[in-house]
Amino acid sequence: MNIYLIHTLCRRVLHDREFRRQILESPEAAVSSMPFSDEERAALLAGDVGRLNREGASGFLLLILSRFEVFGLKLPIFNRRMRTGAPD
Question: Could you tell me the end-to-end alpha-carbon distance of the chain, in angstroms, rounded to an integer?
């Protein structure tokens, strides 16, 4: 898993308003604009932050996705997925 690329996506969501608008309107298109593997793309689109964290992604940076509710990650959902490690 390309953790650097996942972190880059999180930072883009935080700092790039146009990218943030795009990922909220069309998550598949936004994620497809970056060179993710099929496995990474599927985990991101599913909001599987528990898996991404277990694979090495920073929980702090993944929390940015929850801040903007990207991939449907409201804070209670984010917390549950990080705690249980399961998408639902």
Answer: 21
